[in-house]
Write a structure and sequence with these properties.
The protein has a four-stranded antiparallel β-sheet with strand order 1-3-9-5. Strands 4-8-7-6 form a four-stranded mixed β-sheet, with no helix packed on it. It contains seven helices and ten strands. It folds into two domains: 114 residues, no CATH class; 77 residues, no CATH class. Strand 6, helix 3 and strand 7 form a beta-alpha-beta unit. By secondary structure, the protein is of the alpha+beta class.
């Protein structure tokens, strides 16, 4: 269940709008998204975390976290309606009392003190559209700067290969510098760890044809999109 009142836009929609430009028609979608990830590392991004609730089936003390999981807010036992407490003890399963309800996050798995049963987790996530593309907050300044950054990066290649003029390149560079400064003033930028999580997830959330087949099984590991 998605719990947010913010207005969001799919990064795929932004990419589609950009790629209609005559000079950008040969820009591969994956390259454009890679530029978008680079932009968020340089400038930051609006806080676009959303809260979700999800029921998980615990088997042999473990349950797989949702593919869009970012950070746990709360965990509850659906049978007893009691809350779990977080533990950092690596051996917490051997130390807990029978009445203790504890959990630990390890990679993409939640390890609990109950052997089996159902739990409800409340967690932070980066929203996605129906196709699995990341959503970003519909912030006009940020979107404008993002579009110009992608344009600037691609135009650098076109300029170096003498396919656009110095004036066209300079105009784009100037427009980007102005837009980037305006965007940074309008943003509530996540801290370093949050920003690292966002950009890593953006890298892994971009749907490639093969990812649809395996159900995003590799989500949660850092990936890099190769430049062409």
């Amino acid at each position: 269940m998605l719990l947010t009142m913010e207005k969001y836009i799919s990064i795929k929609q932004i990419m589609d709008d950009i790629l209609v430009h005559p000079l950008l028609k040969d820009l591969p979608l994956e390259r454009a998204v890679n530029y978008a990830v680079e932009f968020t590392r340089r400038v930051g991004a609006p806080r676009n975390f959303v809260e979700k609730n999800e029921e998980l089936e615990v088997q042999d003390y473990m349950a797989k976290l949702p593919c869009d999981y970012l950070k746990i807010i709360q965990v509850m036992d659906l049978k007893t309606r009691r809350a779990f407490r977080k533990t950092t003890d690596s051996f917490h399963l051997s130390h807990v009392r029978p009445t203790d309800l504890t959990y630990k996050i390890q990679n993409s798995v939640i390890i609990t003190s109950i052997k089996c049963g159902k739990i409800l987790i409340s967690y932070q996530s980066i929203g996605t559209d129906k196709e699995g593309y990341p959503l970003i907050v519909d912030n006009a300044s940020f979107i404008k700067a993002l579009e110009l950054y992608i344009k600037k990066e691609w135009f650098t290649i076109l300029f170096d290969t003498e396919r656009i003029s110095q004036q066209v390149f300079n105009n784009t560079l100037q427009a980007y510098n102005y837009a980037a400064a305006e965007a940074q003033q309008s943003l509530t930028v996540p801290d370093y760890d949050e920003m690292e999580s966002i950009t890593n997830m953006w890298n892994t959330l971009i749907p490639r044809m093969t990812e649809h087949d395996n159900g995003f099984a590799t989500l949660g590991t850092r990936e890099y999109i190769k430049r062409h």
